[in-house]
Amino acid sequence: MGGRNLYNLTNFTVPAIWSLTATRPVVPDHAVFFEDGLVRRWNDDRDSWWRPPVEERLPTPYENGYTGLVYTVEKYIAQGATTVPERFQLQMFGTKLKASDSNDLYLMVRHTGLITNFADRVTVRSFLPRLPSRGRILDERFVHSTPNVFGFAYDSGGRWLDENSVKRLPEYAQQMREQARFLPKLKSRPQNSATSRKRVRVVFLIFVLASSLPIVYYFFVRRSLNSKSKENNR
């Protein structure tokens, strides 16, 4: 479908089918996600935050879509009156250069999950992973804020920063300055919108009508001359 920027699109959905467990807690037992046969991309990744991508149809036999991801629970475990997945698998498929049909795919990645501990009472209040003392964080939490601030990186310092702390970082200010330079240029680029296509069709129609006027005029003049000629011959 495209890179990670594809998911910056508002209301982007992926077609899928699901089956759920019959007992509580109700969780997915099997799920299949489908690609729709289109490749989406941007000429500039920064455009992905506010412009639709360029869409291109995949070559045959994948032009109508194919299976992209398959999630399957392989084994369940019972804990008292509760039954939960113990072992599950997520497979990602990709297209081949020479394929016989849309089901002829190759396995790109296989992830396997295994539950080793189970508790019916959760005492941990935060599920944020621990950070190493040194490392880089790509922060994209301000992408849909006002104003939009796109992804930028900074040193973690071994802890997660709240939004106010991040806004005081020099990297945040630097990202704002960079956006101020390239944003007006990007917004001024011409777009292939539906409106522009309608205008092209209207202009083309006017051109066709204008080019046909001499022919129509010749037809009527010729017809008028023939009528006068017949009258004179009577």
Structure report:
The protein is α+β, with helices and mostly antiparallel strands and 234 residues long. The protein folds into two domains: 116 residues, no CATH class; 62 residues, no CATH class. It has three helices and nine strands, in the order βββββββββααα. Strands 1-2-5-6-7 form a five-stranded antiparallel sheet, with no helix packed on it. A two-stranded antiparallel sheet has the order 3-4. Strand 1 and strand 2 form a beta hairpin. The protein is flat and about 50 Å long.
Summarize the amount of helix as a percent range: 25-40%
The SSE order reads: EEEEEEEEEHHH
- For the largest sheet, list the strands in their spatial order: 1-2-5-6-7
Shape: flat
Strand content: 25-35%
* Euclidean distance between termini CA atoms: 76 Å
Count of strand segments: 9
Give a quick summary of the entry.
With 234 residues, this protein is of the alpha+beta class. It has helices spanning 163-167, 170-187, 194-233; strands spanning 16-20, 28-35, 38-41, 54-57, 66-79, 82-94, 106-114, 136-139, 152-155. The relative contact order is 0.08.
Can you give keywords for this protein?
234 residues, five-stranded antiparallel sheet, 9 strands, 28% strand, disordered C terminus
Q: Topology, please?
A:
Elements: E1 16-20, E2 28-35, E3 38-41, E4 54-57, E5 66-79, E6 82-94, E7 106-114, E8 136-139, E9 152-155, H1 163-167, H2 170-187, H3 194-233
Antiparallel strand pairs: 1-2, 2-5, 3-4, 5-6, 6-7, 8-9
